[in-house]
């Protein structure tokens, strides 16, 4: 799958991965999660979501949901992106950027 030629499915998979990671992060004490998703035979999407430690899990999830909602305006069809707010952030790329 070539990302630029098929932005809609890529955007959908990006949002699904980040939303899944937001659910995972809110359930952990560190409010942090990483993960990956297959895009095609030789391409994977890697993601990271994180909240500051002063947030409750519910507020963390709300913060992440809010910035994940900004995907279409910030990162439409882009192979990598990040949104950073005061209390939470996400990053995604089509290459591994975190040591698991």
Order of helices and strands: HEEHHEE
**Count of distinct strands:** 4
Radius of gyration: 13 Å
By CATH, the topology is Killer Toxin P4, Chain A
The major β-sheet equals: 4 strands, antiparallel
What is the highest CATH level, the class? Answer: Alpha Beta
Computed structural class = alpha+beta
Beta-strand percentage range: 25-35%
Q: Going by CATH, what is the homologous superfamily?
A: Gnk2 domain, C-X8-C-X2-C motif
Would you identify the regions where 5 or more consecutive residues have pLDDT less than 50?
A: none
Describe how the helices and strands are arranged:
Blueprint: H1 7-26, E1 32-38, E2 44-51, H2 57-68, H3 71-75, E3 81-84, E4 88-93
Helix pairs in contact: 1-2
Structure description:
With 100 residues, this protein is an alpha+beta fold. It has a single domain, classed as Gnk2 domain, C-X8-C-X2-C motif (Killer Toxin P4, Chain A), CATH 3.30.430. It has three helices and four strands; from the N terminus they run αββααββ. A four-stranded antiparallel β-sheet has the order 1-2-4-3. Helix 1 (7-26) packs antiparallel against helix 2 (57-68). The two termini are 25 Å apart.
Q: What is the compact description of this entry?
A:
With 100 residues, the chain is α+β, with helices and mostly antiparallel strands.
């Amino acid at each position: 799958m070539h990302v630029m030629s098929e932005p809609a499915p890529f955007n959908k998979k990006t949002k699904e991965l980040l939303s899944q990671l937001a659910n995972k992060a809110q359930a952990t004490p560190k409010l942090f999660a990483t993960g990956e998703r297959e895009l095609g035979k030789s391409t994977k999407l890697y993601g990271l979501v994180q909240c500051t430690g002063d947030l409750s899990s519910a507020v963390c999830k709300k913060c992440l949901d809010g910035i994940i909602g900004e995907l279409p305006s910030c990162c439409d069809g882009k192979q990598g992106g990040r949104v950073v707010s005061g209390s939470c952030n996400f990053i995604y790329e089509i290459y591994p950027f975190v040591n698991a």
